[in-house]
Amino acid sequence: MAPAVPLAVLALVALGAPGLGGAPGCDYPAHRWCSSRDVAVACQVESRCPSLPRPAAAPVELSLYYESLCPACREFLVQNLFPTWLLLPEEMLNITLVPYGNAQERNVSGKLDFQCQHGPEECLGNMMEACLMHEAKNFSTYFPVIFCLESGTSVTKNLEACLQVHAPEVDSGRISACVQGDTGVALMHHNAQVTEALHPPHQYVPWITINGKHTDKLQAQAEASLLGLVCQLYQGEKPEICGGSKAPKIPSGCRR
């Protein structure tokens, strides 16, 4: 059964209110004006149809530029970003992970080479996580694995164990082939380009952008309470968890 048209709408029609019923594109009888959002828009009565479902709100877009062995990056990802992702409905938060940070890309005899702030092991960790994302593809598949790697004793030595627990369907051999081949280099080159294109340029990691923007205020809010920030920015219906939360403040980041 179509939703009943509010009495206020019918009263306005009876009075010949301008813009109601005579709107171009409105070829529907009054009793159908609130039957769908498209009809209500066509008949210019959308604001008078409270029973219509609210349009879906866009998710908050968060991008994390980080290094696999940076202590502050690991703490933010493990203690703040991952728990927030678990607590919130999927439609509220969209996360992009870019493992590269303060690394440097060089062309050596026609081949790309990377130097990382925390040494060769960090370069390996960055590439492993980039290859994991490439092979797993689905965020909900690879993010728990990255959480497992970053929260463990060794980012680079626990891949097999983390895959067995969180994503047994992902082939570790394909990830290893990616790391050792051209695909891993191409992925790191892409991350280098994306990181170097940041505006303003990143000065430290973790470097956080919210809806494509970075400010000192947004960074501080994300570090202090990411859950509270996402709840504040999201324009749709908010879950009970948005009643308020605080997260521990993380250490200062890894500066360039």
What features would you highlight for this structure?
256 residues; 2 domains; elongated; 43% helix; two-stranded antiparallel ribbon; 3-stranded mixed β-sheet; alpha+beta; 9 helices; single chain; Glutaredoxin
What does this protein structure show overall?
This protein is an alpha+beta fold and 256 residues long. It has 2 domains: 7-48, no CATH class; 60-255, Glutaredoxin (3-Layer(aba) Sandwich). The protein has 9 helices and 7 strands; from the N terminus they run ααβαβββαααααββαβ. A 3-stranded mixed β-sheet has the order 2-1-6. It is elongated and about 70 Å long.
Describe what is shown at a glance:
This protein has 256 residues and is of the alpha+beta class. 43% of the residues lie in helices and 12% in strands.
Structural class: alpha+beta
Share of helix, binned: 40-55%
| CATH fold node name of the largest domain | Glutaredoxin
- CATH H level of the largest domain: which superfamily? Glutaredoxin
Give the strand line-up of the largest sheet.
Answer: 2-1-6
Instruction: Report Rg.
Output: 25 Å
Architecture per CATH nomenclature, i.e. the level-2 architecture of the largest domain? 3-Layer(aba) Sandwich
Order of helices and strands: HHEHEEEHHHHHEEHE
Total domains:
2
CATH class label of the largest domain: Alpha Beta
Main pleated-sheet profile? 3 strands, mixed
Q: What are the segments in which pLDDT stays under 50 over at least 5 consecutive residues?
A: 10-22, 244-250
Number of strands: 7
Average pLDDT works out at: 89
Report, as a whole number of angstroms, the end-to-end distance. 63 Å
Q: What is the count of DSSP helices, taking H or I runs of 4+ residues?
A: 9
**What's the overall geometry?**
elongated
The percentage of residues in β strands lies in 5-15%
